[in-house]
Amino acid sequence: MRLLLFLTGFIFCGYSQSQDVNHLPLIVRASQHLAITGRVIEYPFISSFNIEQESLTFRKSSGAILQSFPKVAYSAYDSAIKYDVSSFYNSKNVRIKFIINYIEPSSKIFISVGYDRGSQAEKINLSRAYFIGLTRTFNIHKNGYLTTSSGSWFGGKITQYPCIDSYDREYYCPNLTAWIDRPNLDFQNEKYFQIKYVFAF
Amino acid sequence: MKRIYYVTIFPLFLLMLLSGCAGGGVIVSSRTYVAGTQTVTYSNGSTVTNTATSTAVVWASDHITSTTTYSFADGTTNAVVATVAGTAGTPSYSGSTQTIVTTYGDATTSTATNAAVSNVITWASDHVTRTTTYTYADGGSNAVVATVAGTAGTPSYSGSTQTIVTTYGDATTSTATNAAVSNVITWASDHVTRTTTYTYADGGSNAVVATVAGTTSTPVLTASVYPSDWTTTGVVTAPSTSSVTITYGDGTVTTTQAGTTALPFDQTTLSAQSITDPSAVVASTTTTYNLTWGTPDKSGPGYALNFPNASNTLSSAPGYAGITVAGQTTTGPTLLQPSADVLAAWNSGWTGKGINILLSDSYANRSGCTYLNGNCHGVMTMMNANLSAPGATLFGLDYAFVTNFTGTAFDGNGTNLTSSKSINVINMSWGFIYSANNWNCSNGACVAPTDIVYNDGITSTATTHVHLINVLNGVTSVTNLSNFSNTVVVKSAGNDGLDTKYDLTVLALSGNSNVQSRLLIVGALDKNGTVASTASKASYTNYAGTNTVISDRFVMANGEMPWTTGSVKINGSYFGVMQGTSFAAPLVAGYAAVLMSKFPNLNAINTSNIILDTARTDTLSCTPDCSSAIYGKGEASLSRALAPVGRLR
Description:
The complex is a heterodimer. By secondary structure, chain A is mainly beta. Chain A has one domain (7-191). Chain A is 7% helix and 48% strand. Chain A has one helix at residues 23-37; strands spanning 6-13, 45-52, 57-59, 65-68, 72-74, 82-84, 95-104, 109-116, 119-120, 124-126, 129-141, 144-155, 158-160, 163-164, 170-172, 177-178, 191-200. Chain A has a seven-stranded antiparallel sheet with strand order 1-17-12-11-8-7-2, covered by helices on one side. Chain A has a three-stranded antiparallel sheet with strand order 9-10-13, with no helix packed on it. Chain A has a three-stranded antiparallel sheet with strand order 14-15-16, with no helix packed on it. In chain A, strand 15 (170-172) and strand 16 form a beta hairpin. The radius of gyration of chain A is 22 Å and the shape is elongated. Chain B has five domains: 26-84, no CATH class; 87-147, no CATH class; 159-211; 216-294, no CATH class; 295-642, CATH 3.40.50.200. Chain B has 14 helices and 38 strands. In chain B, strands 30-29-28-31-34-35-36 form a seven-stranded mixed sheet, sandwiched between helices. In chain B, strands 7, 8, 9 and 10 form a four-stranded antiparallel sheet that branches. In chain B, a hairpin with a 5-residue loop joins strand 18 and strand 19. The longest helix of chain B is centred in the last third of the chain and has 22 residues, at 451-472. Mean pLDDT of chain B is 79; it is low at 1-24, 222-239 and 260-304. Chains A and B meet through strand 14 and strand 16 of A and strand 23, helix 4, helix 12 and helix 14 of B.
């Protein structure tokens, strides 16, 4: 077996909301291995897999933290008034996420597809999302390899719901300010584009 | 043979000699002995005294019986038996035991060991030196001194302090309090559970577990560059805020909200950045950065003027109902800051934006109002409404409309309305009283109105009040004001020190079920109450009273105008300290506006009920026994009204 040592020349990330913490390093490494050894993995393989029932902390499809909610919310206007809001942020379902990869033999392009079931709690809903990505490594000169990888999650819409008091007033649950003053989550579909150069010796 | 003979002859000779042959033939008649002296009496009566030629002493086995045998020249002996007691030595002691060595005549000794027959224990003042005095049968005594250390009990702990109680032999105790010599702090994975393990000099340790909440940061403006002159066209570097973080005791910092310009700023933060624009909106040629929280109210007409600053001096003179309120020597008056309740709401952008408050008051001669004729009253109530809801839009209407319903409403600048406005809150800092039903004074003595006079008053004002209620119920309209059927009605309680039911307007309003359900009757306090500095009922205010329909809709608020003596000038007249329920009521009207602006689904009934439900008595000096017949529901609290009420779902 040939011993491979990688020396990263440079890494360039294009626009990137958040690189998938599991998938991206693995798929890049696999692509480089294929380019250097010529060995093709003949079967689909999984590069990211996660099962979790979220509570208080919710994550984006990539695994990055979307938002953490407090167990107890204190009124911004009278700290003596507090409510346990933890039950509002317990997901009712088990969230399943995975990315599976297949190598197209002729082009040696890694095709990645993924699925995120999403998470549904009483006051926040993350809808299901889908991932698609492509990765390929080019041999640009002797022992020099350039890997390009890109991918994007689609879907995963985030919806938050207000807490309502006995007078039917709507509050943003984490800090009990008026619902109309709630912060935007500023969420966009997560996507990345990466170019990575390695020198093998 | 020859030798044997000699032996035989010699004793015979000796015997003869001893027996008196030498005396020339005298015969011994008797011999007597006294100890070692022999007296020989002869037949001729003479006596000879002889001393023993030798003495031999023999002791019996009891060591005290001695036999002394004296031998005399004539061969006789005298045995004398005597009892010679032993000689006891000086006693020695060991603990409770006495030892005496007795020496006998035969030079032998015996040792007697005696136990004490009694003992007495005494303790020195140091509680550890014990003296045991043993007494023996022979009367002797022995004092034994011993050091008896105390017995340390099981240590108890409080925080970093170890306490050990030592019990001594004399039954006294001493308590030692020891500080820890070192400590080790560990944190649980939840970052808030801290365990401090204290170690003490005796090797003991104590683990103290405490819950230490994290500190939530206040987002601040962290990076922004502004033109030095707000009117200058130039590049504005986008501002940003620091994230909202929680810093825990173990050094962990979690971000609960990322920094963004959509997060809260307040004027203090902006001032720290040398920004003087009171509207807190930064404009450039390319974009406008809104530096305020969410959908802020801070662009309200009075907000910039009233926002508190270090000096409390407004930067310019504000105007209410078209009348300028100035300071005596500066362009703007010096105003006291509003309550902490109101400040907190302002800092979060809750100022009543989008809500219209109508101040029905005395404006008949507003352009020429002076202190003396009192027509500046409406200017002051409008000012107070603005003080609690600076983002709300204020309108004025002379209270005389209730008699002829022909008044003309105007805006906060005093400009008559030309289009219809919807009123969310109406404040009425006035009331009809029958001319003779007020305090009936004669020769300096005043008495409360009688029921007869009171009932006369009801009758005489009945028509007026029917008209008023028709207006409030939308039966009758006022030009350029939409109907008031969903308007919060705020009414001052009156300043006669009476049961509020004697205010005939209050009585009329509370007697109409439709108006009563959205009515707030406001009495006056001497200041803004806090838990630390409670407020008292103002001496002049009407109180909630015995009519429960009224007391159930009764709250209280500060009746003092927010200035000190002589600090403001209205229309050229100086105004000293002003107080009354007239000025408490618009504060509560402002509270209603703030509530309605942030909770658009609130109707007038719910808004007024929230203010009633969240009024507090712990800020009043009467607490904990505040009578509802005096204080109604208590002091209106904006902060409590803003917070959720009841179950959160």
